[in-house]
Amino acid sequence: MTASFLGGRLPSPLSRAVAVPSGGEVLVLGGIDPSGTTSAVLRLDPATGAVTQIGRLAAAVHDASGAPLGHGWLVVGGGRTLASAVVQDVSLSGASASASVAGALPSPRADGAAVSVGDEVLVVAGGRGGLADPAVLMTRDGARFTVFARLPFAVRYPGVALAGRSVYLFGGATAAGPSNAIQVLDTTTGSARLVARLPYALTEASAFSLGGRLLIAGGMRGGRPSAAILAFDPATGHTTAVGRLPRAVADAAVAVVGSTAYLVGGETGSAFLDSVIAVR
Question: First vs last Cα of the chain: how many Å apart?
């Protein structure tokens, strides 16, 4: 497992954005930069490291969730000073991106994640007002949402990754503090359960599936950003250290393109970052 900085830089330091794959590139949606919450839609070309702005969201948000749906992408919730219920639909036309309001969540939600499973998008974790919501929501169009399942542990800011038809949640923030829980949601049955524990409590990490492995990179550990890359084995429930990022980072957006995961921006706890890290 190797991790290194990509050659290019973001136009400005950025954290808590949404990153989604788009063909062989990465779209970076919203986030927060030194001037505040942004509506910018950026395109990252991994081959050259070039990052260009190609459009704007209908509403500026950070701490939102995002996932592909149909021929576009949903940006779900997030917020500025308060959590939002707005769901935005993002599409590409040539070299430009456009966004419109697709619908609304049953209640405002930020600090969670969204994953695509078949023709559905599931919204997991997150909440509002510092309180986590255990309800897992499902939509097929971005306009109508139903409760699909409930998590055994309600968390905000977990690392979330899809492996097959199972959604894994790593750590996160609870009312009692940071968690080391590893939860799994079976999207076939709608059941969710605790399956294991991380070696330490962790929030705001970037989780992803790469090369058949479930990986958790960075995040906040003990109040400080981490550079560790962990691998979780669902068969044994064991977590092992498999590498390190070139710098400690939390709240980085992540998207997988081919055999590489790209961690976009993030923060150190005191400063936003303009870097892109490639994990291979």
Answer: 6
Domain coordinates in residue numbering, the chain: 3-279
Asked if CATH classification 3.40.50.360 holds for the domain at 3-279, the reply, yes or no, is no
HEC sequence for 186-241: ECCCCEEEEEEECCCCCECCEEEEECCEEEEECCEECCEECCEEEEEECCCCEEEE
**Upper half-sphere CA count for residue 100 (Cβ side, 13 Å):** 6
**Residues facing 20 on adjacent strands:** 27
Nearest-angstrom CA–CA distance, 197 and 238: 8
Cα–Cα distance, 145 to 107 (Å, whole number)? 10
Could you give the CA distance from residue 17 to residue 3 in angstroms, rounded to a whole number?
A: 20
Over residues 78-131, the pLDDT tens digits come to: 999 999 999 999 999 989 999 999 999 999 999 999 999 999 999 999 999 999
Q: What is the pLDDT of residues 145-199, one digit of tens each?
A: 999 999 999 999 999 999 999 999 999 999 999 999 999 999 999 999 999 999 9
Gap between the Cα atoms of 109 and 127, Å rounded: 5
**88 touches 74 (CB < 8 A):** yes
- Which sign does the torsion angle of CA 105, 73, 36, 247 carry? positive
Provide DSSP, 21-64. EETTEEEEE--EETTEE--EEEEE-TTT--EEEEEE-SS--BS-
